[in-house]
Amino acid sequence: MNQKLHIPCMSMRKIAPISGTLIILVCLISAYAYAGTAQEIDTSVDVTLERFYKQVEGAREFAGVAKGMRALPNVKKAGFIVGGEYGEGALRVGGKTVDYYNVAGASFGLQIGAQSKDIIIVFMTKEALDQFRAGEGWEAGVDGNIALMKVGGGERVDSTTVKDPIVAFVFDVKGLMADTSLKGAKLTKVNKK
After folding, report:
1. Least confident of 52-61, 122-131, 140-149
2. How many Cα atoms sit within 13 Å of 161 on the Cβ side?
3. I need a surface site. Which of 33, 48, 79, 167 has the fewest CB within 10 A?
4. Contact between 89 and 170 (Cβ < 8 Å)
5. How far, in Å, are 80, 115, 119 from residue 185 at the CA level?
């Protein structure tokens, strides 16, 4: 008697999104579990700002007229159809850290890979800074529009030509995704003191 045992198996079309989602969740939970201390975040922000000033021509002068700057160093993003990102940073006013924030986001669509990037968000007006600080959470494009500045290729940033109240710089992108957008990024104030 020759009998074959039939074991149902899932197709790759079903497994890929499930496994991709699990990988993203593990990465984001791991990043959140190893959240930095206030001192670690401040050190990372210092290094990121120095890199920003070196890589973006005119950045130091641009920052000099800003009412506040939020730096999010080394924001990690990974995706396989379903994507997620996470990072931590600080808001500085007058060169001093006043609040700590994390950024988290999720996306769905054609994407595969991983990357890290630095994000600097500059508040050019006191009103924009006050509105941002008034809430516990803030989502780009929902709670305020952000002008994403293109950097590189010898371009110089100049505060006299920028008229937007909130300006973002995404730079030092490493990885395969090359995503410089802030779409869906949710910033949440965290207590690190």
Report:
1. 140-149
2. 6
3. 33
4. no
5. 18, 15, 11
Residue with structure tokens 């579990």? 33
Number of neighbours of residue 139 by Cβ within 10 angstroms:
16
Is the pLDDT at 83 greater than 90? The verdict is no
Q: What is the pTM of this model?
A: 0.75
pLDDT attached to residue 36: 79
Task: Please report the pLDDT score of residue 72 as a whole number.
Answer: 93
For residue 187, report the phi and psi dihedrals to the nearest 5 degrees.
Answer: -100, 130
Residue 115, helix vs strand vs coil? strand
**Which tokens hold the place of 92?**
């500085």
pLDDT score of 87 more than 60: yes
CA distance 126 to 159: 15
**Taking Cα atoms as reference points, which of 74, 70, 170 lies closest to residue 124?**
70
